[in-house]
Amino acid sequence: MGPDGPPEQSFSTHYVTQHHLGEGAFSEVKQCVDKRSHDVFAVKIVLKKMIPTQEEEKALRSEIAILKDLHHDHIIALKDHIEGAFVAAALLSCSRSRSCWI
């Protein structure tokens, strides 16, 4: 739990989700806006109950770890991630045209 309360509350305190961008086997991707800076991001929302195996959960954690350390102008960047008991959310960069790269 972060300083702003449970992760799910921290997210909704600081970000507003907007339209649906896509989905995967375990996740949904939506556009979101930071309430303070008005920056636009893509948020990948993973319901933990949808991850069927520990190996796939490990792959998700590996994806987050790689994105944390990856810094390149032509690849999405992980801006933040929030994890709770039931949900994990990864905040990803968007293109300058404000359409999110996923």
Notes on the structure:
The chain is an alpha+beta fold and 102 residues long. Helix content is 24%, strand content 36%. It has a five-stranded antiparallel beta sheet, sandwiched between helices. The longest helix is centred in the middle third of the chain and has 16 residues. The protein is globular, with a radius of gyration of 13 Å. The relative contact order is 0.21. The N terminus is likely disordered.
Question: Which features characterize this protein?
Answer:
102 residues; alpha+beta; Phosphorylase Kinase, domain 1; 24% helix; disordered N terminus
Structural class: alpha+beta
Name the helicity range.
10-25%
Shape: globular
**What is the terminal separation in angstroms?**
27 Å
CATH architecture term: 2-Layer Sandwich
Number of strands: 5
What is the CATH level 1 assignment?
A: Alpha Beta
Q: What summary fits the major beta sheet?
A: 5 strands, antiparallel
Percent of residues in beta strands: 35-45%
Query: Strand order, biggest sheet?
Result: 1-2-3-5-4
Q: Write the H/E string, N to C.
A: HEEEHEE
Q: Under CATH, the topology is which?
A: Phosphorylase Kinase, domain 1
